[in-house]
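Example for tutorial group B:
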């Protein structure tokens, strides 16, 4: 009998994952700022026996605040509120290695793991937007390879900090007044190219020991990074053949990194539209598509492809795009969007309709 299982994760975003969901009559737009809305979603996912819920994040307001924004709450704070409303479901938060310090982030995730009883997960991102960089004192996003080099050292430091407390370091001996055994709490004394951290962490070892490590980059650098660290990978794949090729490639890299390929799970995204019949589902999809604000979508698409499309004609194809080597943001999503537009001969209007539900994930 096979011991393989399908793993299901709910990617939560506002009052709906589609960029126009907040405008649809089925949704309640005001609940985007209601923590009980998110706790309710987590309870529904838990009741349905899903493995986890996931919150994405960005460190800038977004492409067109007039029409939408993708992230309202800081994810770790929100997941702490969701943790006390649930019992079993995993809680995965996005946090950037580009604009955080390892000590702070290690402590925050250790705290979430304690609060949730061992259900925390970290989606490791490097942050690829110029608008994010400008919120942290940079003119533009650091180069792609440099971001992943920083991320690798960042995660190494975080792992060392989580291991700075041994499992049985905390004694809580009331009679002797001994809280912890100092011989089992260790400085890490990390001195690297980008970080110098003495340690130890000032939060005792958490229930899992450390959070589940998740990653979502599908570029060459991203896949190498995942092969070294990740236990789950989110990925956008348009076809079964592309998904199988990605799976084989990534698992081979895991083996080359000296890890058991079974230690990493691959989670391709899907964007379902659900109805009582196929026609009802397609009608619902059309309703969402008709609510898309082109001004918002064009700015978002511009970020994906590295070309300003805000004045581009909607019923024309994409203009010539730069080579992928010049893209310093999300290289894998750039390639996916470019291939989608070319292979299906799409106009810009048709392309933003296909991307509105999941920014490249299969609908």
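The residue assignment follows.
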């Amino acid at each position: 009998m096979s011991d393989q299982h399908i793993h299901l994760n709910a990617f939560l975003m506002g009052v709906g994952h589609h960029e126009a969901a907040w405008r649809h009559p089925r949704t309640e737009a005001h609940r985007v700022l209601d923590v009980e809305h998110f706790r309710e979603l987590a309870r529904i996912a838990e009741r349905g026996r899903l493995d986890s819920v996931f919150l994405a994040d960005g460190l800038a307001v977004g492409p067109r605040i007039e029409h939408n924004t993708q992230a309202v709450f800081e994810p770790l704070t929100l997941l702490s509120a969701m943790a006390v409303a649930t019992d079993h479901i995993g809680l995965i938060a996005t946090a950037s290695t580009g604009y955080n310090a390892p000590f702070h982030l290690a402590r925050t995730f250790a705290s979430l793991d304690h609060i949730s009883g061992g259900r925390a997960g970290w989606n490791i991102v490097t942050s690829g937007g110029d608008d994010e960089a400008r919120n942290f004192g940079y003119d533009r996003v650091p180069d792609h390879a440099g971001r992943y080099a920083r991320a690798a050292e960042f995660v190494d430091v975080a792992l060392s900090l989580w291991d700075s407390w041994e499992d049985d370091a905390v004694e809580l001996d009331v009679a002797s007044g001994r809280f912890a055994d100092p011989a089992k709490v260790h400085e890490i004394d990390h001195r690297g190219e980008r970080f110098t951290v003495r340690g130890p962490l000032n939060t005792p070892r958490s229930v899992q020991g450390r959070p589940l490590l998740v990653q979502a980059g599908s570029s060459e650098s991203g896949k190498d990074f995942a092969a070294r660290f990740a236990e789950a990978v989110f990925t956008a794949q348009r076809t079964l053949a592309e998904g199988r090729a990605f799976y084989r490639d990534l698992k081979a890299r895991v083996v080359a990194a000296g890890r058991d390929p079974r230690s990493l799970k691959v989670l391709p995204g899907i964007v379902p539209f659900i109805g009582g019949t196929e026609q009802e589902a397609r009608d619902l999809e059309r309703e969402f598509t008709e609510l898309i604000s082109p001004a918002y979508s064009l700015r978002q698409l511009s970020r994906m492809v590295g070309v300003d499309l805000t004045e581009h004609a909607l019923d024309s194809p994409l203009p010539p795009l730069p080579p992928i080597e010049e893209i310093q943001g999300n290289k894998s999503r750039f390639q996916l969007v470019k291939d989608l537009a070319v292979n299906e001969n799409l106009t810009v209007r048709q392309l933003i309709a296909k991307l509105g539900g999941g920014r490249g994930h299969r609908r």
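The chain has eleven helices and eleven strands. Compare this with the pattern of hydrophobic and polar residues in the output above.
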